[in-house]
Each structure stands twice: as structure tokens, then as C-alpha cells.
């Protein structure tokens, strides 16, 4: 009987050892799967972050291209909004646009009017640009460089009937809405 108990205990030990070994292998496999999954997630996160940086670089490149493009080659909708603050108001017959160009001289503002959009641009000069070559800029929180904005209009306008004025750093445009072409048809 004692041998039988000893034999059962030995068998039980082997079975327990076998179960522990198999459990350990299962845990190791699960850990490996977890590591693989974590690696894939990190790769995906890395690709997403890389994509974000590529998008930012692309936007910066478009902005640089827009700033250096020739005036004659510009088309509406092709340039980036560089935060020229505007107010757009529509009445029955007119469209009004007010745009802020603080510290910009009147001669440094360009206005291009199309039937469906208006492009505004202005050159903001920093104090460093106006001073001698040995000037060292310490802080500059002001806008500088050429800024532009394209404003899509709510309706077509008569290009030749537009007026503009510039006072105290504010540009005001008054655009006359185009009349819809109507014809009267007689019934026969």
C-alpha cells in the first residue's frame, strides 16, 4: 500500500510538473504574442507620427511655394490662409469685406477680385528688416513676411463695380453683387 501511495505521489508529481511546464509554455507564447502585438502597435504609432510630421512638412513647403510664386501664376484657391483677420457681410445688393493689415503700408497691399473669390495679400515688415544689418532681433511676436488670404464669396460679383479703401490698418472692400441674367419668354 505504501508503494502504491508512493507511486501515485510520483505520478502526481510528474503530472503536476507536466502541467506546470505546459502552463509555462502557454504563458511564454502569450507573452510573445503580446510583445509582437505591442511591437505592431508601436510601429503603427510611429507611422502615424511620421505621417503627421510629413503633413506638417508638406504644408510648410506649400506655404513657402505660395510665398515665392510669381504674381501672374497665382490662381484663386491655390494659396494658404496666413491669418489675415476678416469680416464678411452680405446684404441684398452688396458684399462687404473688412480685413486687418496692422503696420502695413497701403502700397504693400494687393487685392485681386474674381467673380467668386477675392485674394488679399500684404507684406508685413519686421523692424529688423528696416534697421541696419547689424541689428539683432531678440523677440518678434509680430506677423512678418507676405501673408495672403483667399475669401470665397457667397455669390458672384461685378468685378468692375468694386471699391476699396484703407484707413488705420483696415482694408474695406465693397463689392456689388452680379445680377442674375433673366429673360422673359412668351408663350405661343
UniProtKB/TrEMBL annotation:
UniProt cross-references to Gene3D superfamilies, sorted A to Z: 2.60.40.790
Superkingdom field: Archaea
SUPFAM superfamilies: HSP20-like chaperones
InterPro entries for the chain: A-crystallin/Hsp20_dom, HSP20-like_chaperone, Small_HSP
CDD domains: ACD_sHsps-like (cd06464)
Annotated ranges, domain SHSP: 77-188
Family per similarity comment: Belongs to the small heat shock protein (HSP20) family.
Protein name as annotated: Hsp20/alpha crystallin family protein
Taxonomic source organism: Methanobrevibacter filiformis
Amino acid at each position: 500500500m505504501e508503494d502504491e501511495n508512493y507511486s501515485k505521489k510520483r505520478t502526481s508529481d510528474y503530472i503536476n510538473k507536466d502541467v506546470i511546464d505546459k502552463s509555462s509554455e502557454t504563458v511564454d507564447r502569450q507573452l510573445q504574442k503580446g510583445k509582437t502585438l505591442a511591437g505592431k502597435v508601436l510601429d503603427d504609432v510611429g507611422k502615424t507620427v511620421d505621417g503627421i510630421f510629413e503633413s506638417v512638412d508638406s504644408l510648410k513647403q506649400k506655404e513657402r511655394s505660395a510665398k515665392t510664386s510669381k504674381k501672374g501664376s497665382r490662381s484663386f484657391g491655390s494659396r494658404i490662409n496666413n491669418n489675415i483677420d476678416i469680416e464678411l457681410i452680405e446684404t441684398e445688393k452688396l458684399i462687404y469685406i473688412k480685413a486687418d493689415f496692422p503696420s502695413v503700408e497701403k502700397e504693400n497691399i494687393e487685392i485681386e477680385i474674381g467673380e467668386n473669390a477675392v485674394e488679399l495679400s500684404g507684406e508685413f515688415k519686421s523692424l529688423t528688416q528696416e534697421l541696419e544689418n547689424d541689428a539683432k532681433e531678440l523677440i518678434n511676436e509680430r506677423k512678418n513676411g507676405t501673408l495672403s488670404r483667399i475669401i470665397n464669396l457667397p455669390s458672384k460679383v461685378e468685378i468692375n463695380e468694386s471699391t476699396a479703401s484703407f484707413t488705420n490698418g483696415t482694408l474695406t472692400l465693397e463689392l456689388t453683387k452680379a445680377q442674375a441674367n433673366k429673360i422673359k419668354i412668351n408663350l405661343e
